[in-house]
Specification:
alpha/beta; Lysozyme-like; 2 domains; six-stranded mixed β-sheet; 12% strand; globular
């Protein structure tokens, strides 16, 4: 399918039929030396990984798997009751060294290319803002990408993801950490590894401090997110 937002087509063999309709987008970083190295891995049958799109730091968008098919990007993952995240999602890889090779800001050109692609995908499949997530959100025990420097605020300006709550109506709504974990699960996270789940929540919603410790600010942010969702303001 022709797409003016896509610059190249490099079909990956790592794909299979979907088992669910598309309801989310998962954003990743490649954590590799270059876009070419990432491309080679995503197209290598032996690697058994892929994504629908790869966006270079220069802003070049390459399609590897058609959206109608299931790409292998999320691995063992979970979000809001969905355990086969690969079947329900579009996966977008961002060419980036990641935490392992020198974590840094994402390039403006890359985010400028991501925004219209994401807008087209979310519009086509009526994907709610709450389901535009990072790999660490759906696999908190294993992954940290796209990480604390990813500019979620830029995406939120265009209505492409949920913004960080600007106003916290209740200062400290949960009686104890167990109540917070249950609320975190209700919001969508896998809390099997509670510490890692808290780190993932911090990485997305309070990136200035990531320590895996539940505190009053985190409790207030989570409560506000749930309150907004219950009011129908967080789709």
């Amino acid at each position: 399918m022709a797409d003016e937002l896509v610059h190249r087509e490099e079909p990956s063999p790592n794909r299979n039929p979907r088992k669910a309709p598309i309801s989310m987008v998962v954003l990743h970083y490649t954590e590799m030396e270059s876009a070419d190295a990432a491309m080679a891995r995503l197209c290598d049958p032996a690697a058994e990984v892929s994504a629908h799109y790869l966006i270079s730091e220069a802003g070049e968008v390459t399609r590897l798997v058609p959206e109608a098919e299931r790409a292998w990007h999320a691995g063992l993952s979970y979000w809001r009751g969905v355990r086969d995240v690969n079947s329900a999602s579009v996966g977008i890889e961002l060419d980036h060294p990641g935490h392992g090779l020198g974590y840094r800001d994402f390039s403006d050109a890359q985010i400028d290319a991501l925004i219209p692609l994401l807008a087209r995908i979310t519009g086509t499949y009526d994907i709610p803002r709450a389901n535009v997530v990072g790999h660490s959100d759906v696999a908190p025990a294993r992954k940290t990408d796209p990480g604390e420097l990813f500019p979620w605020d830029r995406l939120a300006e265009y209505g492409l993801c949920l913004p960080r709550p600007a106003k916290l109506e209740t200062g400290d709504p949960f009686d104890n950490d167990a109540a917070f974990y249950l609320a975190l699960e209700r919001f969508g996270y896998d809390i099997t590894d509670g510490h890692k789940a808290v780190e993932a929540f911090q990485r997305r919603w309070r990136p200035e401090r990531i320590d895996g410790i539940v505190d009053g600010q985190l409790r207030a942010i989570l409560f506000q997110l749930l309150l907004d969702r219950d009011r129908g303001l967080a789709r």
